[in-house]
Amino acid sequence: WTPCMPMADAPPLQGVTVLVTRPARQAAGLMGSITSAGGQAVGFPLLHIEAEPPGSVGELSNLDQINLLIFISANAVEHALPLLPSPLPAKMEIAAIGQSTARLCRERGLQVEHVPAGAASESLLTLPRFTDLHGQRILIVRGHGGREYLAEQLRQRGAQVDYAEVSRRVPSDEPLGRQLMVDIIIVTSGEALQNLARLAQRDRQTWPFETPLLVLHPRIAGLAGELGFKLEPVVARQANDDGLMAALVEWAQSSREQTQL
Asked: How far apart are alpha carbons 84 and 105 in whole angstroms?
């Protein structure tokens, strides 16, 4: 398959069908952008987000000793808000990873002091505030079972780090049928990619392994090879929706140009 050749003034994604595998609530903005660019967005959430029982997230009930509260994602913000004390301790600073996370914090009345340029947790470590953290207590608000890299790095810089895990990602068990024949698949986490491979093997569908992937991070691209996906994934230069859209448009244009050779 190659994308249909657009007319001179046609939308950049005309003729492109994109499988968006994010959880439904997270996928809405990206799917709208794909549609606005002339593409067809097909939603197939590979993970569902469920809140942890309130009683299991006691770390958020008392923040008096916390110097820095770090929100890993917009989902973390959504699920943490009902559990936060009011008012928040005046001396406590808030960091948000990614512009969408910071924006949601501010929309919900939280003052965010630290937002890195990138949307990966590693980008937070480049900010001057996080250079020397001796004597600092940090609480990372995230979903259950996330990566340990950020906490490890913060501890190496002198911080005491704990987690408040406010949600968990539950793999989808929806049938992966032939009707989902698409031109490219967007996958934004390693866990989602693993579930895609599992569903494809369970349902004896080979097309996911033979369809181009668009991913957020080289780490996910490396996992794709390990799981048996045959094509080299496209990796967005920015780990956010704008980066995904830019990579998608660039891929569509490149695919059309190759058919003209």
From this structure: 12
